[in-house]
Automatic annotation (TrEMBL):
It comes from Dreissena polymorpha (Zebra mussel). Residues 17-107 form the Reverse transcriptase domain. This is Reverse transcriptase domain-containing protein.
Length: 124
């Protein structure tokens, strides 16, 4: 199905030559959403088992996911740091990268003063 996959880049009506696609799923492919869910099932399981996440009644809200977007929810900085480490280790194992330019951290706090927390994904 995905052996020797090739793609072209279309930009302003122009097409590139064919380029090899060594890994990943085809954007817009019929099987891509299912294959993506199979791929991330392991990370969601690890996050749920980490006990660093938020639960509402019987619903585990550790990593709500839509398409290729994921939210990590934790009650503490330490819990979120642990979850980020799980995500980093999983990405190393399965050879994919996160795009830091589209990642963000939101801290909800009852106190009026702001905390200067630092979060990072991996050692860098």
């Amino acid at each position: 199905m995905y052996r020797k996959t090739k793609s072209r880049i279309r930009y302003h009506g122009l097409h590139s030559c064919e380029l090899p696609v060594p890994q990943g799923t085809r954007q817009g492919g019929k099987s891509s959403p299912l294959l993506y869910l199979v791929c991330i099932d392991g990370i969601i399981t690890e996050l749920m088992n980490s006990k660093n996440n938020v639960c509402l009644f019987d619903l585990n809200l550790c990593a709500p996911t839509v398409a290729d977007d994921m939210v990590l929810a934790s009650f503490s900085k330490r819990g979120l740091d642990n979850m980020l480490n799980i995500c980093y280790e999983y990405s190393k194992k399965w050879r994919f990268l996160y795009n830091p330019s589209i990642c963000a951290v939101v801290v909800f706090n009852e106190q009026e003063h702001k905390h200067q927390h630092s979060f990072k994904l991996g050692p860098d």
